[in-house]
Specification:
Length: about 200
């Protein structure tokens, strides 16, 4: 998360803060209760409505391991994730490595179990933003994009743009604004989800 992006002085943590404020701006349009913000190694923030609260939350640099299992279970336990709720729950997960427990022991299989068996895909959409170049982590999350319902995975901006142009052509327009849109609604909109995937051959 402390890696610099675009050869500048902004880190991935700074970029994530800006994306979170965009999530807040859009999220409060659809839900006046605000947005819940879960951190992995410190307290969470609930019903955020003011971008200044996001700045305050991100003022502390990230540290520690990646206990995604606990955070995801907390999120899917929210009332919005239950059957019968009139709104869908969109969980936006930004991570820079594979899931671990609080001691740093990898627990990818447990996280996969939560995603595949404890999460209700009909009510809970999950959007992963990968802030890492680690091949193993990227591969696991990318597989879930293909095998799990209402899940989308987005890489960092340069990598995502390269993947999309690989399948859509080098002239395909994909701006930072498009990147944010994909990161936000890829798990909800199948057409957006498929932008970074091979175009299926017409069987006719």
């Amino acid at each position: 998360m402390k890696t610099f992006v675009d050869n500048g002085n902004r880190t991935r943590w700074d970029e994530l803060c800006e994306i979170t404020k965009i999530v807040l701006e859009i999220g409060t349009i659809f839900d006046s209760n605000g947005v819940d913000l879960f951190f992995l190694n410190r307290r969470s923030y609930f019903r955020i409505k003011d971008p200044r609260e996001v700045d305050q939350a991100f003022s502390i640099s990230p540290s520690g391991y990646t206990p995604l299992v606990t955070a995801l279970r907390s999120a899917i336990g929210l009332p919005a994730a239950r059957y019968g709720n009139d709104k869908k729950l969109l969980i936006f997960v930004a991570t820079d490595g594979e899931p671990t427990d609080y001691e740093g022991t990898p627990n990818l299989s447990e996280f996969e179990h939560v995603m595949g068996n404890e999460r209700n895909p009909e009510t809970t959409h999950v959007m992963f933003l990968l802030c890492t170049d680690e091949p193993d982590s990227v591969e696991h999350f990318t597989q879930w994009d293909q095998t799990m319902k209402n899940v989308d995975v987005t890489d960092d901006f340069p990598t995502e743009r390269e993947k999309i142009r690989r399948y859509r052509g080098p002239a395909f327009r994909f701006s930072r604004g498009d990147y944010v849109v994909k990161a936000l609604i890829g798990a909800v909109d199948p057409e957006i989800d498929k932008l970074d995937e091979p175009i299926p051959l017409n069987s006719n």
